[in-house]
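A reminder from the course coordinator: this example appears on the midterm review sheet, so study it carefully.

Given structure:
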């Protein structure tokens, strides 16, 4: 069992940056491919980025490619999402999960609001 807790969200102006963190409890964090997902108001949750177990490979949604960077520190049981050049359309609640996501692993997420 893994419990995930996201943090680092907030209000930022367009063009600004934020760094999200997701800390996992449990000893098996380093066994999972991890991902970031987001849900904007009135929309379905969508994939943002994913990273392999050792952090050697990553993949991004087209909408964030070149602006967001996913990374992980298995020693700290933490996965990060560095978000640069933020746009108002990036406004959403951001979640981390395994990839593919497990329903019982969703946390509360962290809200990112980008003002224009």
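Designed residues:
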């Amino acid at each position: 069992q893994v419990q995930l807790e996201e943090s680092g969200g907030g209000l930022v102006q367009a063009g600004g940056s934020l760094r999200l963190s997701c800390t996992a409890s449990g000893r098996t964090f380093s066994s999972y491919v991890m991902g970031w997902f987001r849900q904007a108001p009135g929309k379905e949750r969508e994939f943002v980025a994913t990273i392999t177990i050792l952090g050697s490979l990553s993949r991004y949604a087209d909408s964030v490619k070149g602006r967001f960077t996913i990374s992980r520190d298995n020693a700290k049981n933490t996965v990060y999402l560095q978000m640069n050049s933020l746009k108002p359309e990036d406004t959403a609640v951001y979640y981390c999960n395994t990839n593919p996501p497990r329903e019982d692993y969703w946390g509360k997420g962290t809200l990112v609001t980008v003002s224009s």
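DSSP finds no helices and ten strands in the chain. The two ends are 40 Å apart (CA to CA).
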